Amino acid sequence: MISTTALPPAKMPRPEPNKRRRLLQTAGAVAFWVVVWQVAAATLGYGGLFLTSPLGTLEALARLLPTADFWHRIAFSALRILAGFLLAVVFGALLGAASARWKLVRILFNPVMQLIRAMPVASFVILALLWASSANLSVIVSFTHVLPVVYAGVAAGIADTDRQLIEMAKVYRLPLSRRLRYIWLPGIFPSFCESCAAAMGMCWKSGVSAEVIGLPDHSVGDALYRAKITLTTPDVFAWTLVIVLLSASLSAIATRLLRLARNCLCGEVRA
Fold it and tell me: Most C-beta atoms within 10 A of its C-beta, which of 1, 65, 100, 101?
């Protein structure tokens, strides 16, 4: 009989030192730049007319949060920007897969994607206003600026898929469903996830920029522009902070959902 007293006590898992160090470094860097921001605002003076302080930004945000107009604008812009993002993900994935499969599709669409990448947001917004109303402008602009990113990510993922596994699947005549689950999806998903995470931040920047130019009623871009022309600098910073937080939060959510989808489709156990 083995004595239980000889067994070592169980140890609780501890956070990795490197992870804790990175968190502390990030927090320290953020705190440093907040202090720089505060010092710069105090140095410029003029009551925060040209540069409001961090406290002034938070006070403006606290004043905006309880209002129905604030949430109405968030919902108005978020629904349209996310609609453009989702449409771009679907069409970008389909076009990326088609371009990897057929050379003609790649020849036809590569110049279009390069043109969209190179075109300034302001130029495209002005052109889009000739074809659509300002209310739907952020959908169009978000769609067009996310499409090339997802297209390139899917095409790159297919190109990086192990060719030996593909040949083996042909030899053993694996069904298409198993080829997708065990070969194509694991090869495509890493690049696809990275492109979607990058595209989420891009679509918010381009969508709000379109709203600032088109000025659709009840949008975040319209509120940002109105705060600028009335010289309400704290509101400008507050709305900018909201845009940054929404972009970062939705990017994190999109990444998490894509990982869960990968685990379900590819049969992986851990997220």
Answer: 100
The torsion region of residue 48 among left (phi > 0), alpha (psi -120 to 50) and beta comes to left
CB contact at 8 A, 98 and 158:
no
Residues spanned by the domain of 190: 65-266
Tally of residues, the chain: 271
Is 143 domain-assigned?
yes
Question: What CATH number is associated with residue 123?
Answer: 1.10.3720.10
- In 3D space, the residue among 196, 197, 175, 177 whose CA is nearest the CA of residue 96 turns out to be 196
Which pTM does this prediction carry?
A: 0.80
114-121: list long-range contacts, CB under 8 Å, 24+ apart.
114/148, 116/144, 116/145, 116/147, 116/148, 117/148, 121/145, 121/206, 121/209, 121/210
* pLDDT tier for residue 164 given thresholds of 50, 70 and 90: confident
Q: What is the mean pLDDT of residues 58-70?
A: 94
How far apart are the two ends of the chain, measured CA to CA in Å?
A: 41
Instruction: Give Cβ neighbours of residue 11 (< 8 Å, ≥ 6 apart).
Output: none
